[in-house]
Every structure is written in C-alpha cells, then in structure tokens.
Design goal:
The chain has 242 residues and is an alpha/beta fold. 39% of the residues lie in helices and 16% in strands.
Length: 242
C-alpha cells in the first residue's frame, strides 16, 4: 500500500512543482522564495509519513487532536529525500486552552488573531525557553465565515504584540474566498502583500515582516504571483481520504 501511496504522491509533487516554477517565472521570482506546507489534516498517518519520506519537510495541521498521532509518529524522524526532520505548522484557528498542547510541538503558528491568544502563546513559549515565529491572520475578504482580524485592527494588535518577547511576528496570513476562477482571488492576495508592506513602512514592529502565508490548492499560483512565501497545499498535493 505504501508504495502505491508514494507513487501517487510523487506524481502530484512533480505536477505541483512544475506549476510553482511556472508561477515564479511569470512573476520574476526565484523558486526558493516559495515554501510548501503539506497539509495532512485530511489524510491518514500512512500518507503523512509517505509525504515526509518523499521530502515534504513542512507539515500543516489545524487541530491538535487530529495531529497528535502524526506528530508523535513523524517528529524526530528524518526524510529519506532531504534528510530533514519534520517542521510542523499550526494553520487553523487556535483556542487559548489548546496552546499548552501546541507550543513546543509546532514550530510555526499561522493564526494569531487576538491579543489573548498571543499572550497565552508568549507565556507558554517563555516557560519552555522558546521564541515562536508567528503570522497574524487577517480577514482580507471580510467574509464572516473566515477567521482573522479586520484590516483596520492590525496596527493596534501589532503594537501590542511587539511587547511579547517570546513571539516573533514574521508575517501575515489570509484565506481567500473560494472562487471558481482562481484569478478572482488576486485582489485578496495583493491586499495582504500591500498591508504587510505598509506595516513595515510604519515600522510598528522592531523587525520587518518578510513572510506571507497565503494560497491553497485552488489558488496557489495566483498567490505566488502576488508574493506568497508559504503556500498551504492539501488536496492537490497530499490528496484527500475518507
């Protein structure tokens, strides 16, 4: 079964890689500027392990209770393709009472959307002697179904976050609305890039934000063209089971 899974995965990885390279070429970007997060939340442990063995080092989950088995099995093991250990990204909405389960296991947090959550992360990270690289999630589209700050709330939150010494705010994250045509998502991704650049110009944080976590299976090429540095790929790359 594993060989069948790996064969299918390898084929999807090659196709995705070609599409990333083409998007980078169209937008005059270097391929190494774009990082893939393999979103494993819809697949089995066996498939997640196969993805890591094939060289997908960055793995994304959005619920600790769903990720626990995979984290325990894969963390500490090295990829057979690149020799790298798994790096875990928490990409979902994080409840404050789950922070203790996540910090120390997930290297990156993509979903800071309120001060109370950031303070809980900072407290736990401080206890563990860690500095956690984080993204602030912004609801650029304004959809009520999406998590994240409203655009105008960002400066005030960043001002508060700079006081939390165990957090390092490295960028912004957003989710675009589902569109039949990927091109329709472009204004959302462009707005996030422009928002990051505006915040950097205002120098609210001690260090400039360099990262943009945006783009998923249906729209990642447009996100790359608009400056994404982390794309979160599930179905198109890892597949979906069940």
């Amino acid at each position: 079964m594993t060989s069948t899974i790996k064969t299918a995965l390898a084929g999807r990885m090659e196709e995705v890689e070609n599409r990333i390279a083409a998007a980078c070429a169209r937008s005059g970007r270097k391929r190494e500027e774009v990082n893939i997060i393999a979103v494993t939340k819809y697949v089995s442990l066996e498939t997640a392990e196969a993805a890591h063995q094939l060289g997908l080092q960055h793995l994304g989950e959005n619920r600790w209770q769903d990720a626990k088995e995979k984290w325990e099995a894969i963390s500490g093991s090295e990829s057979s393709e690149n020799g790298g250990q798994a790096v875990w990204h928490f990409i979902g909405s994080l409840q404050t009472n789950k922070v203790k389960d996540v910090i120390g296991k997930f290297t990156y947090i993509h979903s800071i959307d309120r001060l109370s959550l950031a303070q809980a992360i900072d407290k736990r990270a401080s206890q563990l002697g860690l500095t956690v690289p984080c993204f602030v999630q912004v609801n650029v589209s304004g959809e009520q179904s999406k998590h994240g700050l409203e655009l105008e709330q960002l400066p005030a939150l960043l001002t508060e976050l700079k006081e939390l010494s165990s957090l390092r705010i490295i960028g912004l994250m957003t989710m675009a609305p589902y569109e039949t045509e990927a091109e329709e998502t472009r204004p959302v991704f462009r707005a996030l890039r422009e928002l990051r650049d505006e915040m950097n110009e205002r120098a609210i944080l001690p260090e400039s934000m360099t990262e943009l976590s945006m783009g998923m299976s249906g729209d990642f090429e447009v996100a790359i063209e608009e400056g994404a540095t982390w794309i979160r790929l599930g179905t198109i790359l890892i597949g979906k089971e069940g």
